Automatic annotation (TrEMBL):
<keyword id="KW-0812">Transmembrane</keyword>
<feature type="transmembrane region" description="Helical">
    <location>
        <begin position="223"/>
        <end position="240"/>
    </location>
</feature>
<feature type="transmembrane region" description="Helical">
    <location>
        <begin position="144"/>
        <end position="167"/>
    </location>
</feature>
<protein>
    <submittedName>
        <fullName>Membrane protein</fullName>
    </submittedName>
</protein>
<dbReference type="InterPro" id="IPR049576">
    <property type="entry name" value="HDC-like"/>
</dbReference>
<feature type="transmembrane region" description="Helical">
    <location>
        <begin position="303"/>
        <end position="324"/>
    </location>
</feature>
<feature type="transmembrane region" description="Helical">
    <location>
        <begin position="246"/>
        <end position="265"/>
    </location>
</feature>
<keyword id="KW-0472">Membrane</keyword>
<feature type="transmembrane region" description="Helical">
    <location>
        <begin position="272"/>
        <end position="291"/>
    </location>
</feature>
<keyword id="KW-1133">Transmembrane helix</keyword>
<feature type="transmembrane region" description="Helical">
    <location>
        <begin position="26"/>
        <end position="46"/>
    </location>
</feature>
<feature type="transmembrane region" description="Helical">
    <location>
        <begin position="88"/>
        <end position="110"/>
    </location>
</feature>
<feature type="transmembrane region" description="Helical">
    <location>
        <begin position="53"/>
        <end position="76"/>
    </location>
</feature>
<feature type="transmembrane region" description="Helical">
    <location>
        <begin position="379"/>
        <end position="402"/>
    </location>
</feature>
Length: 404
C-alpha cells in the first residue's frame, strides 16, 4: 500500500469519528468510533503496519508523546496540581475496587490464574500487559498470555463510551453552576488576583522572554523550548533510575507545570506553534495501531473471559470510586471518569475530555472553565494508573502467578 493511500484512509477514519461524535454531541466518542473502524480495517484489507506506512512509526509517536505531555503540563498551575490529591485517592480506590471484585467474584467465575493475568493490563498500559503476558508464557499458559494483550487492546471499548457519558453529565452540571454564578474555576480566581499586574502583558509570550523582540518568537523557538523541558524530564528520569523508577512522561507533566509557572513556557506552546493538531493526530494513530493484534480467532477464543473480567472490573471500579468520591465531596460522575482512565490512559483521556467540552459549549470562557475543572484530574489520573500503579501490580501479580 502506498504511503499517501494509507495516510488518506486513516485520516478518513479520524474524520468519520469526529463527524459521529459531533452528530451525537459526544455521547458516542470519536475514539470509540475510530477503534471500531480500525478493527474492521485490520480484519479486512489493512496491512498490519498501516500506521507506520502512513508515516507514524513508534519512534515518532514516542517523540510526540514527550512534547504533548509537557504541553499538557502548561495547562495546569502549581495550585491546581496540588488540588489533585483527591483525584489520586479516588483513582487508587477505583483500582482497589477492580482488584477486590475480581479476586472475589471473578475467582468464582474464572480461575485464579486468569484473574491474576488479567488485573494489571486492565488497570494499565502496554508495559503491564507485556509483563503479565511474558509471565503467563513462562508459566506455560499460552492462552492467558494472549488474554493479557487482548484485554489491553480491547478495554478501551468499555472505557471510551463510559467516560464520555460521565464527563458529559459532569460538564452539564458544572456549566449550570458556572452560568448561575455558583462556581468560579481556579484559573479565574488566580487571574482575578493577578489582573492588575498582567493587564498590559502579552500572554502568548512567556514572562522570561518578554524583553526579547517579538520577531524572534517563532514556531521553532516555542518547540525548541518545549523540547528542552522534555529533554530535562527525560534525563532526570534516567539519573533517578538507579535508585527509583520514575516515568519520564510523569516528569514531563510536572516539569511542564513548573516551566509554565516560572515563565519559561507559554500556555500550550504547541498550539502557539501551530503544531498541536498534528501531534494529536500522530498519537491517535499510535493508539489504534495496537488494535492490529485483536484477530477474530483471538476474540472468539477469549471473548467470554475478556468480557466477564472487564465488566466485573468496571463494576468494582464504579462502586469503590463512587463511595470514596462521595466522602471527598466529588460527584460520582467525575469520580468514575477519573477511575476509568485506567482503561486507556494518555492521550485518550485528553482527547475524550476535550471532545466532550467542545460539544457542551462554544463560549471560550465556558470552555476554559470546564477545561480547568475536568482536564487536570483526568490527566493526573491517567498517569497514576497507567504509568505507576499498573506496573507495580504487574510486578506483584507476575511473581504470584509464577509461584503457583
Amino acid at each position: 500500500m502506498a504511503q499517501m493511500t494509507a495516510f488518506t484512509l486513516l485520516m478518513g477514519i479520524l474524520y468519520i469519528g469526529d463527524i459521529i461524535s459531533s452528530k451525537t454531541k459526544a455521547w458516542v466518542s470519536s475514539v470509540f468510533v475510530c477503534a471500531v473502524l480500525f478493527v474492521v480495517g485490520y480484519w479486512t484489507f489493512f496491512p498490519e503496519n498501516i500506521v507506520e506506512i502512513a508515516g507514524i512509526p513508534s519512534v515518532v509517536a514516542t517523540l510526540l508523546m514527550y512534547l504533548l505531555i509537557t504541553n499538557m503540563g502548561t495547562l495546569l498551575s502549581i495550585k491546581e496540581l496540588g488540588n489533585q490529591w483527591k483525584t489520586i485517592v479516588i483513582t487508587l480506590s477505583g483500582i482497589v475496587g477492580i482488584v477486590v471484585l475480581l479476586l472475589t467474584v471473578g475467582s468464582f467465575i474464572f480461575d485464579l490464574k486468569t484473574v491474576l493475568v488479567a488485573v494489571p493490563p486492565l488497570v494499565g498500559g502496554v508495559v503491564s500487559s507485556l509483563i503479565m503476558s511474558e509471565a503467563a508464557q513462562a508459566a506455560g499458559l499460552t492462552s492467558l498470555s494472549v488474554l493479557a494483550i487482548l484485554i489491553y487492546v480491547m478495554q478501551g471499548f468499555a472505557g471510551y463510551p463510559l467516560t464520555s457519558i460521565m464527563l458529559k453529565k459532569e460538564g452539564q452540571r458544572m456549566l449550570e453552576k458556572y452560568r448561575s454564578g455558583q462556581w468560579q474555576p481556579v484559573h479565574e480566581q488566580e487571574s482575578t488576583a493577578s489582573k492588575q499586574s498582567e493587564i498590559l502583558e502579552d500572554e502568548t509570550i512567556p514572562k522570561l522572554f518578554r524583553a526579547v523582540p517579538k520577531r524572534y518568537h517563532t514556531d521553532f523557538s516555542r518547540i525548541f523550548r518545549l523540547a528542552l523541558v522534555a529533554l530535562l524530564a527525560y534525563y532526570v528520569s534516567v539519573w533517578c533510575s538507579s535508585f527509583v523508577s520514575i516515568s519520564p512522561f510523569v516528569l514531563c507533566l510536572f516539569f511542564g507545570v513548573i516551566a509554565s509557572t516560572l515563565g519559561f513556557l507559554e500556555k500550550q506552546p504547541l498550539k502557539e506553534a501551530n503544531s498541536f493538531g498534528f501531534a494529536i493526530l500522530g498519537l491517535m494513530l499510535f493508539i489504534f495501531d495496537g488494535l492490529k493484534k485483536a484477530t477474530p480467532e483471538m476474540l472468539e477464543e477469549l471473548l467470554l473471559p475478556m468480557v466477564g473480567i472487564i465488566v466485573i472490573g468496571v463494576v468494582g471500579m464504579y462502586l469503590f470510586s463512587a463511595i470514596v468520591g462521595r466522602l471527598l465531596g466529588v460527584s460520582k460522575e467525575m469520580a468514575f471518569a477519573v477511575s476509568l482512565t485506567a482503561l486507556y490512559g494518555f492521550p485518550a483521556d485528553y482527547i475524550i475530555t476535550n471532545e466532550v467540552i467542545q460539544s457542551l459549549t462554544e463560549d471560550e470562557k465556558e470552555i476554559e472553565a470546564l477545561t480547568s475543572h475536568m482536564m487536570p484530574p483526568m490527566l493526573v489520573a491517567g498517569f497514576i494508573t497507567v504509568t505507576i500503579v499498573s506496573v507495580i501490580l504487574a510486578g506483584i501479580f507476575s511473581s504470584i502467578l509464577l509461584s503457583l
